[in-house]
Amino acid sequence: MNRLRVFISGQKYFGEEVFDLCSKIDGVEIVGICVPVGDRYLGRKAQLYNIPIIPAGSLNGDTMPLGVDLGITAHSFDYIGAKTRYRPRLGWIGYHPSLLPRHRGRSSIEWAIRMRDVITGGTVFWLNAGIDRGDIAYQDWCFIEPRLFALPPNEAARELWQCELQQMGLKLIETALKDILKGVIIKRPQSADLSTFEPNTEVKDIYRPDLLMIEEKASPSTSWHR
Asked: Which CATH number is associated with domain 4-198?
């Protein structure tokens, strides 16, 4: 394969970085993006290069353009449904900042901090119907510096993302794209025996009281009775 037509669903700085990465690789052509209205990173870059844009929330099997070889999620919160996943010839890849199958879910970096993991990493995987459950393509790892455990988990997670995991993701996506251009496609099933899933720390779900329990331990004055 010497030509790869890609579609990017994403947003913000990481989405823009994936866009720039794809633009620099010979043989990769960006044929469209899905981005929230008003996004000043990926959205603005697509407008600059006259790339067709689908507003976030409206991507589906009918709005997805024809002739796409590969879909890429880059900080995308849009659910990629079955019809949308099957539209690209090869499917979709995404980057998850954890060593899948550990720490599935949106707050993976923060949970690695909360659970005091010594090592974490990133995974490029193939999207399927489950949340972060698709076959693994590429992975890399890094140590979590002990000093990060002294910070509030959300601050530590942000630093770990900016200093380690973001660039790791770009390198892994680059490796994937260059291999796919050469006809090399890697898919390794995740081990269900090793999987973990944690809830989004930004959502206080009454059906998942574990987060409230964590906060209660951190703040003795907090009461369940109101």
From this structure: 3.40.50.170
